[in-house]
Every structure is written in C-alpha cells, then in structure tokens.
Amino acid sequence: MGLGGPMPMPGGPRKAPGLGPTGPKGPKPGGAGEGLGPLNDGIPRPCCIGIGAEDGRGPGAFVASPSSVPISPGAEMYLQLGLAIVSFVLLITIYLRLRLHSVKKRLLRVTTKLCELQRICYETSAGAERSLRIEGCLRASKQPSLQRLVRELDRLAKEYKFGEHVIHLAVTAILNAKNISSDAHSPFVSGISQSVRQIWGYRQLFNRLDDIRQTQYDCNNTQHEAQLTNLWNALVPTESLPGRHGKHWSYIGFQGEDPASDFRGMGLLGLYNLQYLSHECGEEAQKLLLHSHHPSYGYSFAIMGINMTDLCLQLLRDGTARTHFFNENSSIPTEQDFHHFYACVFIQFDSFWIDSKPDSIMNFSDIRTRFEMQLRRQLQDPKAHLVLEHR
Amino acid sequence: MFKELSWVRLSVVRIGLLAFLRKFRSAPDQEMRILLLGLDNAGKTTILKKLASEDITHITPTQGFNIKSVHSEGFKLNVWDIGGQRKIRPYWKNYFDKTDVLIYVVDSSDRKRFEETGEEFAELLQEEKLACVPVLVYANKQDLMNAAPASDIAQGLLLHKLRDRMWHIQACSAVRGEGIQEGMEWACRTAKKKK
C-alpha cells in the first residue's frame, strides 16, 4: 500500500526483562523465559540458546532455559540418526498399511469371488450407507475404464444429460469392467443402478440449483415479479399486496422497501425456496412467520430464509447433505426434494433459535454457527433423514 | 580445532536464523478497529470479503454482524461489518467504542435513498463516542451505469463542512475490487498519524 518506514512499536523498548548487561543474576525459579537471567559469566556457550518467552515481550532475548543443555556433536549425530530411523520405520508402516488394504481386497476377491462393489451391495442396505461407499469405491478405482466412466458421468451431470438411459449404460460398463454376469447377479444390478442414480442425480441437482442461484432477480422480468407477488399472497392471504414498493415488505421480513435487493448471491433460488415453503408447507410457514414477530426472539423471516438457502446449498456443495438425499428416495432427486430439505432445515433452525434465547438479532452469527455444527453432525450419520417437524 | 570451528560456524548460523525468525516475531501488528456502516445493500459485506480476499458470489443480507481480521501494511485490521437494515441500526452504537476509523459505505446508484443515507451519516457524526474518529466514505457501485460521482456524494453528505475530524471519500466498485485498496491506504496512513 506504499506505507514505508519502520513501524512504531507500542509498549516501550522491546527488550526482554532481565537481559541487560548488569552482571549475573541467578535464574529465578519458576519464571519461565521472563525471569531467567542471562548467563553473563563470561563463558561462551555455543548452544545455550532458547527462544524467548511466548508472552510477546521477549523478542531478541537469548535466554538460557534449563532444557537447552549443550549437546556434544557426537550426541547430536546419534540424535539425528535416531530421528531418521524413526521416520523411516513410520513411512514403511504407512506404506504397508496402504498395501494391506489392497492385499485384503485381493484376498476377499479370491475367496468370495466377489468384487468390492458387489460386496458393498450385498452387505449394506439401500440408501446412504450403500451409495456413499459405492461412490467412494468408484472414485478411488484404479481401473482406467472405471476412471473414464466416473469422469464421463460427472460431465453428463454438469450438462444436465444424466438420466435413466445413462444409468443403464453406466451399469453395463461396470458389469463389463468387473466381469460380472447380469443374470447371475441381478440383485447387484438393481443395487448398483440405484446408487449410480442417486450419486449422479445428486450432482446434477446441485449443478442445476447453482445455476438458479446465479440467476439474479430482475425487476423487469414479469415472471419474477409475479413470483414475488405470489410469495406475498401465500404468506399474507388476508391482505392483497399494497404495492410493489413500500414498508409492508418488512412484515414478511425483507430489509427495505424493495425486496429485489435482498436476494443477492442467492438469486432466484432464495425466492423459489421461500415460495415452496409458503405454498407447500403453508401451516409451517405461518408458524415461522408468527415466531419471526415474537417480541424478544423475533427475526426477519424472508432474509433469514435467504440465509438458510445459503446454508442448504453449502451442505449440498460439500456433499454433507448426501446422506439425507440418498435416504430420501431412490429416484433422481429433484428441485422439489431440495425445497423440502430447505423447509426441514429452516424449521429446525427456527426451533434452535428460540431455544437459544437470543438477546437480539446481533447474536445471529454465533447461533447460526452453532446450528450449522449441530446439523453437520446430524447429517454425518449414514441413516440421517430430515423430516418436517414443528412444535 | 576443525571441530571447534565448525561448531562456532553452526552456532553463528543458528543465531542468525533465530534472530531472523525473531525479527518476524518481534513485530506484532499494531491493531486497528474499523467499523463498516451504511444502509442495507450498500455493499459493506462485499467490501469486507474483498479485503479478506474471499469469494463474493454467495453473499446474503447481514443479520447481526460479521467480523474479520485482515493483515495489511503492518496493521492488523479488525473490521466490523454491521448489518444496515433499519431494524438493526439502533444496535450500531454498541460497536462504537475504541473505533480507530469509521468507514461509511454508500450505494452510489441508489439515488432514491441518498437522503436517508445522509441522515444516518449526520447522526453518526453527532455520536460522542465517534467524536474526532477519522471517516472514510466509500462511494460504492461505481461500476453501475447510474452511479453518482463521488464528488456529488461528498456534497450530499456535507463532507466539506466537517471540521472536527479527518475525512476522505473514495470512489470504488467492491465487486470489481477497484478503489478498495486506495481507501484502506488512506485509513492506515491516518490511523498511523493519530497513534
């Protein structure tokens, strides 16, 4: 930034106490760093160097500490040798552990005549437990044909071309790569089909949602405007919208007189989420709106909702939400499924917020962080499945 | 003899290295408390995220506040970004204590709310706890077609009539990252002079 020159140092001279050339002072007991006197007895000690105390006051302090006794060169050599041996052994152990996994895999393959994918399918129940392990196995595969398949499926999910016909082709490719007969292993075929459907359906859904998020709310788009009016009508059925701009928007929790500026980075996805909540879960939405007007624990309903959109999308992006989606249903997940997930999260947050008894909205970041941690823990369970529940 | 010499050399290297490391340790950054205020949708959080070199594409309206520590020019900047919604403006005063620089952000394209932003700004200047605190005004969103120039905003906020404190107005576009650094340079320079 072009500010040069030495920094002025607050707090006076930057010398450690007890360092002056004032002759020998015996080391004080217990005064780590600060009180330990220098060894000013005129005998040079090449190795008597300890780093100053961690109190931030002792820069430049060459303090002798009891732990840094002079070591002879021979001893140091042995020390280094010892260290080298220890790290070598450690590396070997890690390598063997890694090998052990593949040895085990090979052994199981020979004895059971089943590949890892088959074993996963036969020993786990359908849902997140199976699909998460299948995904891990496919992505870690060293077989070139499977690596190509994974890349291809990722690409199709990005281009919204993932569908039932692709699943059939993908499963055939897996059967060929692993030399599995579809007739002899029909339960495997249906199991792996469902996992492929869930894994790449989820990815495709995330890509689609992120596209919607990137579409900004546009005041000149009649469709967007109609959806905004819809939101008002669903939330406040007793009163028709008084006008496009005005203070009435704060009743449903927008910040100012024009809600358009509140969608920000969540774009249309924020609006769609709120719309789903108020239309499909009308009763719950009314409860949330009521809570948002609570005299002590109130909040801004709409912008809280937009914030929840951000949280839900984050959970989808980093894969944390996979457990819920894989347990939710066996078909390709849709936008509706995401809206439903959103409604569950928002309702759960509302309860968490009220239970936290916040002093004011200024406690929001702290409470949100704690809520996110709890939700992540909840979603880590392979059996996780959020449901709409409200007190 | 040779052995002893190598020991001396080794310890010289060590001392040199330690002194070098210590030099880094011995200059703890001077802390500075910066308060980011302004109406909702002015761009406070975007500026904060830009300062911290974070992604600005997932911003949502600020409920409560955000805080980030940024190291810049030998300063540790503790930047407090407080939500600008009318409902939470009464809480602004809880954050005034020990502020080194006040940054006021204006959406230069939102001409309808120039009056409102002017009123809020005038009220802030009356605050006892913010007396004499240097103020930096970011005339944000200069990338938008209908943005008012910084000089108009300075006039609207009556900056030229300020006598009790240092002030600076900086035209900027937080989304493009233009002008932010220049403003912060002024803030650091001014805080340094004051300290």
UniProtKB/TrEMBL annotation, chain A:
This is ELMO domain-containing protein. It comes from the Eukaryota. One of its GO terms (molecular function) is GTPase activator activity. Residues 223-379 form the ELMO domain. InterPro entries: ELMO_dom, ELMO_domain-containing. The chain crosses the membrane at residues 77-98. It holds the Pfam family ELMO_CED12. Residues 1-37 are annotated as: Disordered. Residues 20-36 have a biased composition (Gly residues). Keywords: Membrane, Transmembrane, Transmembrane helix. The keyword Ribonucleoprotein does not apply.
TrEMBL record, chain B:
Keywords: Golgi apparatus, GTP-binding, Lipoprotein, Magnesium, Metal-binding, Myristate, Nucleotide-binding, Protein transport, Transport. Pfam families: Arf. This is ADP-ribosylation factor-like protein 3. It comes from Darwinula stevensoni. It is found in: Golgi apparatus. GTP binds at residues 38-45, 84, 140-143. It comes from the Eukaryota. Belongs to the small GTPase superfamily. Arf family. One of its GO terms (molecular function) is GTP binding. One of its GO terms (biological process) is protein transport. GO terms for cellular component: Golgi apparatus. The keyword Lyase does not apply. NCBIfam families: small_GTP. Mg(2+) binds at residues 45, 62. The keyword Ribonucleoprotein does not apply.
